[in-house]
Design brief:
globular
């Protein structure tokens, strides 16, 4: 059942993405994808490890719903605080740091829609993650919510295209925001059925464990913030060097990576909850290695298809983007590394092996800065190669930390102060 729902969800997302690519003009698709990336970056940046801490604390309290509720409420409060801070930084960074703002009409409206979408998606991300842990049917429930939301979004876009000859980035973004709001409301209602009511904590004088949540999150913040800004960095580079057309081309190549999206969902919805529920180290290792090997085999098979049939795959985007087939193999390779790195990071944070994350982030920053200074980045090809290099710098250190965690978990234990 979960596998069928995941495949259905990815299929709908793929159809919706390429319907928009083929329908919108290059300029409108650039604006749509730019603001969508901005929403997703804001959502990811305001998380900074808060959502991944849900699995860690669920495991720590040994699945006791009342105790878990306290941690969940603390996570929500920490994330809300981070959201405001990050939003104030990100929006000026994009529009005043590149030429994108001068190329967009109705900018205040698009910014408002983008922020609203981020709020709803962040809310859904938090509640859906908790639901997958606290409910035996949480994985299926959250997938059903997402499938219905995706169907509604595709139906609305298809209806408007058919009846109104729709070709507006604003309309597409507004539909995305409305569907995200419905998704967030549905997930909150589903989660409330599985957690003790908040009123049961009304007379509890103990403060919420915000400090404990923050101590878990602090080592993650540099890496979480840095990683969340990567899609935005690519948009900034495209806007700065090539304008709307280059933004659209980089985004289209990224959308091809949706073919790997089903594996991201498998990691979040099945593998990580299964690892959190493992009752022994032997069971944990079985799930870990079975998942890692299966994922790598599927990724390599999909990557081979991209190398063998680039023109056929790019034909899905239409004639406007037919010249991009030469860039597809590198874009797919970056998507493969992104999935593997995401799996490694999720395991790292589930187990609390996040002590050395700041060192990973420093390595990634130094590598990117060196590449920007030494290698020209002007064309779409240059940006795609930069994306591959950046993803490699993201993926490899976390794989090494996974190996260290499996072989010597004591290396991540906090040493008592003298």
């Amino acid at each position: 059942m979960p596998a069928a729902l995941q495949i259905t969800l990815q299929g709908i997302s793929f159809v919706t993405a390429f319907l928009l690519i083929r329908t919108l003009s290059i300029a409108d698709y650039a604006i749509y994808s730019g603001f969508l990336v901005l929403s997703q970056a804001l959502m990811s940046a305001c998380d900074l490890g808060a959502v991944s801490s849900i699995g860690y604390f669920y495991k720590k309290v040994e699945r006791q719903a009342a105790l878990f509720l306290r941690y969940f409420r603390a996570v929500v409060q920490v994330r809300s605080f981070l959201f405001v801070i990050v939003a104030v930084i990100l929006y000026p960074a994009l529009f005043f740091g590149s030429s994108l703002g001068s190329q967009v009409t109705a900018l205040p409206l698009l910014i408002a829609i983008s922020i609203a979408t981020s709020v709803f998606q962040a809310s859904y991300g938090t509640t859906a993650t908790a639901l997958r842990f606290v409910s035996p049917n949480g994985v299926v429930t959250s997938l059903v919510i997402e499938v219905f939301s995706s169907v509604a979004r595709l139906a609305l876009i298809g209806l408007i295209i058919t009846l109104l000859a729709f070709d507006s980035a604003r309309t597409a973004l507004l539909i995305t925001a409305i569907v995200a709001a419905a998704q967030a409301i549905a997930s909150w209602r589903a989660l409330n059925r599985h957690l003790p009511p908040h009123k049961e904590m009304g007379n509890d004088p103990a403060p919420l464990p915000r400090r404990e949540v923050l101590s878990y999150v602090l080592p993650i913040i540099p890496g979480g913030l840095y990683h969340s800004l990567q899609p935005l960095l690519l948009t900034w580079l495209a806007a700065y060097n090539g304008g709307l057309r280059q933004i659209a081309e980089v985004s289209v190549l990224g959308r091809i990576g949706l073919v790997f999206g089903v594996l991201s969902f498998v990691v979040s919805y099945q593998i990580i909850p299964a690892l959190a529920r493992a009752d022994s180290q032997a069971q944990f290792l079985r799930v870990y290695f079975k998942s890692a090997i299966g994922m790598i085999v599927l990724l390599l098979a999909a990557l081979a298809g991209g190398f063998l049939f680039p023109s056929q795959i790019m034909s899905l985007a239409g004639a406007k983007y037919s010249a991009l087939d030469a860039f597809l193999p590198v874009a797919l390779a970056a998507a493969v590394l992104q999935i593997i790195g995401g799996f490694a990071v999720s395991v790292l944070r589930l187990e609390g092996w996040n002590r050395f994350e700041p060192a990973c982030t420093i390595l990634q920053i130094l590598g990117q800065v060196a590449w920007i200074l030494l290698v020209p980045i002007n064309s779409t090809h240059d940006i795609i190669v930069f994306s591959f290099v950046s993803t490699s710098l993201y993926c490899l250190p976390y794989i090494l930390l996974n190996v260290l965690g499996l072989l010597a978990p004591q290396a991540f234990e906090q040493r008592p102060s003298a």
